[in-house]
Amino acid sequence: MCGIVGYCGKEPAAPIILEGLKCLEYRGYDSAGIASICDGEMLVKKDAGKIDEVERKQGIGCLPGNIAIGHTRWATHGAVTQANAHPHSDCHGRLAVVHNGIIENYQQLRQELIDRGHHFTSETDSEVIPHLIAEKMEGDSYSLEKAVLAVMPRLEGSYAFVTLAIDDPGKIVGARKNNPLVVGSGSHGNYIGSDALAFARHTRKAISLGDNEVVVMTPDKAEFFDAAGNAFSKQPRELDENWANNCKDGYEHFTLKEIMEQPCAIDRAALQDGKKFNSIALDILRAGQVVFTACGTSRYAALVGRYLFSRVGKKFSEVANASEFGYFVDSIDKNTVVIAVSQSGETADVIEGVWAARDVGAKIVSIINRPNSMLEELSHHTIYLKCGPEVGVAATKTFLSQVAVFYLLSFSLVNAFDEAVEHLGDMSGKVAEAIECNNSNLINLAQKLKDKNDFYYLGRGINFSIATEGALKLKEVAYVHAEGMPAGELKHGTLALIEQGTPVVVVCPDDYTYGETLSNAMEAKSRRAYIIGVSDRESDIFDFWVEVPRVDELLYPMVTIVPLQLLAYHMALARGYNPDKPRNLAKSVTVK
Ligand code: M6R
């Protein structure tokens, strides 16, 4: 949550920062701002609103200077106002800071600073940082980096921040604890960002800053220091070419582009190292217990994983909601394999649980999309989804890629990785078919249902996870209340909510759950629900049939989820919302 960008070099900095902020808008889009230094003056422009709006109102991209920092905000402390937007400054406007994270002891620090005569202009936790740094620079004549190092131990909570100061010009200093910060070095200068996506168009050489490390960036070099101020060197990693593509490629929205990319995403997810999968499979088979920890869509993908592990590998596992996982750490030990599933690799709830599990000796396997993440640093094994950046806040192609990875992993449990790769080889065509057959029908369905307030999604077995993920998509992008549940659960309470015309989406491909799921659908139909069947086999019960291609039972999730993503997308448009940037949400949730 919140995106940070910094640049110093030979080029005008603000346009580079603005472009970087747009690439990080997935991290938050409440407000934005840039600070630059030019001719010895600190210039700050910021406002509430999405980046384009702020640019229109304030012209942040026109600030002069070759050194600048910027921020796109997802509000935690303080309303969405111009005053609370970053960058924040000290009392005299001589330094500027952009921050991502939460300073948990900010109230105490703020009071101390007020008692010493500081004036605050925002309600944010972040503003204590520039005041603390300024005190060190003014009172103790510290350099910017020395002041940052002195302030870091005072900050409780999590942070990634970057700062620049007119009293120590020509450099940007960045620091990190439990929030990501990546440094990029290019021929025209140096870059820093919450994600390498912020500068991937300029350089693919990226270095992740570690916890409690500090970077000092000048136009020519980036130097790294540990918490004690000792310099050390770090080697850059080359970013995957795919990671630099951050355009809509002619689609109206990233969400649609990413849905359409799914046939290709399956092929990429299948490009895995069989030996690595076999070694992870051995760890899983030997483990006393296997627990998935994840949030949101990644958790629903983990439900598919749990099913596949049981059905293919005869290995029982459990799926924990990551924000609750920490409360069960008493039963985690060195015989536990924890599978952490996270597109971003930086979800705070996931990271915290993984820390706790590591502390008691559990083996950590992570399944991640974004490179250079904190989760990777904490893991014994990491599997990458390889599907490139997902910019739409609603996860789409990463869900399908996670499912593909679980398919490979479950077959690895029975030493059949190669067979699984072969099966996946046919799936990109099937997914493309699921898109082509349904897209225009779903536009009509969305028009018909756009004023409905409640949807219910049902499925059994492997299809239950698709019901839950389909419902989440609708909530997120179309702002319609939706519940996904095991089809058998409907009669235990929720049936009371079904009335004439209530849309009930029934995920019932022609597998061994078909008959029983239809019986549950019939219970809703008898109460005059409007039944939308997602299946390769038609039924009289359906009021609307979403036809999907016939595939093997274990691969149905890949073809059934796609029309549900499209339905949510078209519902969002029919209701007048931008599916790429749902209200109140951010793609990376780095706070607990
Ligand atoms: O990056 P992660 O996979 O850890 O994110 C987890 C959830 O925040 C995420 O899946 C969220 O639910 C999506 N916006 C769903 O579309």
Condensed summary:
It is built from 18 helices and 25 strands.
Characterise this structure.
With 592 residues, this protein is α/β, with parallel strands linked by helices. The protein has 2 domains: 3-244, Aminohydrolase, N-terminal nucleophile (Ntn) domain (Glutamine Phosphoribosylpyrophosphate, subunit 1, domain 1, 4-Layer Sandwich), CATH 3.60.20; 250-425, Rossmann fold (3-Layer(aba) Sandwich), CATH 3.40.50.10490. It is 36% helix and 23% strand. It has an 8-stranded antiparallel β-sheet, with helices on one face. Strands 5-6-7-8-12-13-14 form a 7-stranded antiparallel β-sheet. A 5-stranded parallel β-sheet has the order 17-16-18-19-20, with helices on both faces. Helix 7 packs antiparallel against helix 15 (427-449) and helix 8 (274-286) crosses helix 13. The radius of gyration is 25 Å and the shape is globular. 59% of the residues are buried. The structure holds 5-amino-5-deoxy-1-O-phosphono-D-mannitol. 5-amino-5-deoxy-1-O-phosphono-D-mannitol binds next to helix 9 and helix 16.
